UniProtKB/TrEMBL annotation:
GO terms for cellular component: ribosome. The keyword Transcription regulation does not apply. Transmembrane segments: none annotated. It comes from Lactobacillus colini. Gene3D superfamilies: 2.30.30.30. The gene is rplX. Residues 2-29 form the KOW domain. This is Large ribosomal subunit protein uL24. HAMAP family: Ribosomal_uL24_B.
Amino acid sequence: MFVKTGDKVKVIAGKDKGKEGTVLSVNAKTNRVVVKGINKIKKHVKPSQTNANGGVVEQEGSIHASNVKVIAKASSKKEEKK
């Protein structure tokens, strides 16, 4: 897959077209990525230890990897040591 966690990407298709963000996670099996601040969805959650009230939580949903374009690659620790 051409996208890695930490890469800065731009959305080229869909409702968030033109927006930029950082890749939070990559699912190579389904070819989908989660980008910070893109494709916000509302999820209903039950009360738990961390969230005593529960309720509706807004979080990022995944989008298909073909709908993003890499702007800047994430720097790896190996490259920084050179």
